[in-house]
Each structure stands twice: as C-alpha cells, then as structure tokens.
Amino acid sequence: MTTQEKTTYVASGAGRSLWILGQLMTFKLYGESETVGLFEMVIPPGGGAPPHLHRTQDETHYILEGEFEFQCGERKITAGPGSVVYVPKGLVHAFGNHGTQPGRLLFVETPAGPLEQWLAEIGDPVTDPSSPPQGAPDMEKLAAAAQRTGGIEFVEQAGY
What we know:
Blueprint: E1 16-20, E2 23-29, E3 37-43, E4 48-53, E5 58-65, E6 68-72, E7 75-79, E8 84-87, E9 93-97, E10 103-110, H1 114-122, E11 124-125, H2 139-149, E12 153-154
Antiparallel strand pairs: 1-2, 1-11, 2-3, 3-10, 4-9, 4-12, 5-8, 5-10, 6-7, 6-9
Helix pairs in contact: 1-2
C-alpha cells in the first residue's frame, strides 16, 4: 500500500457528530490512525469539562472561537482564538467556555484510542445540530464507560 492510499481526507462539515454533555462533538479522525485522534467541539457558554485526567494520552486544545478558561494542575489559563493549551498525560485539568457565545475547540489526542472510545460510547446521536438533548447527564453511564475504556478519570480536587 502506498502512502497516498493511506491518506485520510475529511471535508469541511463532515465527520461523525455526537452530543457529549450538551456539547456538539465531531470526530475528524477516529480509527484511521493509532497515533492521533482529532475532533472538534462546539461548547455553549458555561459548558466544558470537569476536573479529570488521562493516564495514557496527551491532550492538545486549539481554540478556534470563543473565550475559554483552563485549570491545568495549579495553573489557570485564559485562552482565546488561536491559542493552544497542551496537557500532558497524568495532569488533572478542567476547562470551560467563559464567553457569552458558543466556542469551538479542536482537540488532538495522542496516541489515539481510549478517550475517543469513551466519547463514542457516551455520546448521543445528532439528529439536529441546533438542538442538544435536554436533561442531566447519566453519571453512572459516564463512570461505567470510563472504567471500561480507560479513557478518562474524573477527579474531585480542591481548587477546581
């Protein structure tokens, strides 16, 4: 097989989309590569991720639109469009959209695998990208999927 035959192309607006905790996530690379996972998230004001860590993956966030606040270990970071926040595996981190409009992030996970599997398992199919599912997340489902896939560990920690 030639290098050209292994090339993956995902057109603008394409990819498998899921609702993850009220946030629209679109896989851009999932399963095509063992080395990298790539997905885009549209996060409403006040949305984000609670304190967590990844044991086997580094996580890089590239802010496309909006104002986000990250807590990475003891460090607080405010990041706007064009900013990059790299989080090495094992570091407790959280983030949130602190703007008044939806924000967009491009996530890069290296290597690919557990986090993408967890997201695929907990996500809800998107029938209308302008209408997220209503109601509180099923925390038992999230925790059970996290234990099965090893993609994420939620952490209760002072300062977050």
